[in-house]
């Protein structure tokens, strides 16, 4: 079901993923849907709602429009977006490590809880967790490290038959897909081998798993 009433921070987080793309989070460029369409799709809101919020973000100096009308994070907007991303990933770890939620459940609840934690609370969580490197789905807690690591990874969809790789990250914004990854044993740290590409199928834990195009694009791996 589509969600309404997303916060400024959730919009900034979404634009952040489009600003530092990998795999499923395609870069914003000519020939691709406009930013309002992309943001609306990822957040499950109407294009009109996304357009209105983008106007608000621009008015508040958090984004600016590029030559192709794409949304570019300003210095202030990027700093805030990176804080939001870090907070989300730490809350996910809190939910899995201390409260017993599954990794897939943690993503949903972290979205709901994000606005309730202050910066001081987030730092205390990080300290209590022992300054974790990654969220349960493999995304680095430190956005700067995430951006550097992007160059080392590829979506599974880009690998040829016979290639071997290690799963590093799982796309998060589609909750159903995220649950499916875990149900199939497609988790960070698992090694796999591409058996075929049309359709995509991989050997994993002695068995074989078939993947849709969407799933293959949302699984980020480090090729062997």
Task: Name the descriptors.
6-stranded antiparallel beta sheet; two-stranded antiparallel sheet; SH3 type barrels; Arc Repressor Mutant, subunit A; alpha+beta; 224 residues; 9 helices; 8 strands; Diphtheria Toxin Repressor, domain 2
Layout of strands and helices, then pairs:
Elements (H helix, E strand, L loop, with lengths): L7 H12 L15 H9 L3 H13 L3 E3 L5 E3 L1 H23 L5 H11 L5 H10 L14 H7 L4 E2 L8 E7 L4 H9 L7 E7 L2 E5 L2 E5 L1 H5 L1 E5 L1
Antiparallel strand pairs: 1-2, 3-8, 4-5, 4-8, 5-6, 6-7
Helix pairs in contact: 1-2, 1-4, 2-3, 4-5, 4-6, 5-8
Would you give an account of this structure?
- This protein is an alpha+beta fold.
- It folds into three domains: 8-73, Arc Repressor Mutant, subunit A (Orthogonal Bundle), CATH 1.10.10.10; 83-150, Orthogonal Bundle (Diphtheria Toxin Repressor, domain 2), CATH 1.10.60.10; 153-223, SH3 type barrels (Roll).
- 44% of the residues lie in helices and 17% in strands.
- It is built from nine helices and eight strands.
- It has helices at 8-19, 35-43, 47-59, 75-97, 103-113, 119-128, 143-149, 175-183, 213-217, and strands spanning 63-65, 71-73, 154-155, 164-170, 191-197, 200-204, 207-211, 219-223.
- The strands form two sheets. Strands 3-8-4-5-6-7 form a six-stranded antiparallel sheet. Strands 1-2 form a two-stranded antiparallel ribbon.
- Helix 1 packs across helix 2, helix 2 (35-43) packs across helix 3 (47-59) and helix 4 packs across helix 6 (119-128).
- The radius of gyration is 18 Å and the shape is globular.
- The termini are far apart.
- The mean pLDDT is 87.
């Amino acid at each position: 079901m589509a969600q309404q009433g997303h916060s400024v921070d959730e919009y900034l987080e979404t634009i952040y993923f489009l600003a530092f793309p990998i795999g499923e989070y395609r870069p914003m460029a000519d020939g691709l849907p406009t930013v309002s369409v992309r943001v609306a799709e990822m957040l499950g809101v109407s294009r009109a709602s996304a357009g209105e919020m983008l106007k608000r973000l621009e008015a508040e100096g958090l984004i600016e429009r590029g030559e192709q009308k794409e949304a570019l994070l300003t210095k202030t907007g990027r700093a805030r977006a990176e804080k939001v991303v870090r907070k989300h990933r730490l809350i996910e770890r809190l939910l899995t490590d201390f409260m017993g939620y599954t990794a897939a459940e943690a993503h949903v609840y972290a979205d709901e809880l994000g606005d309730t934690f202050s910066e001081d609370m987030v730092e205390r969580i990080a300290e209590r967790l022992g300054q974790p490197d990654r969220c349960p789905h493999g995304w680095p807690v430190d956005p700067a490290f995430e951006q550097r690591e992007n160059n080392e990874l590829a979506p599974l969809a880009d690998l040829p038959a016979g290639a071997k790789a290690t799963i590093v990250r799982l796309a998060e914004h589609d909750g159903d897909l995220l649950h499916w990854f875990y149900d199939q044993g497609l988790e960070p740290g698992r090694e796999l081998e591409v058996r075929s590409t049309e359709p995509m199928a991989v050997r994993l834990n002695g068995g074989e798993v078939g993947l849709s195009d969407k799933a293959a694009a949302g699984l980020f791996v480090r090729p062997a």
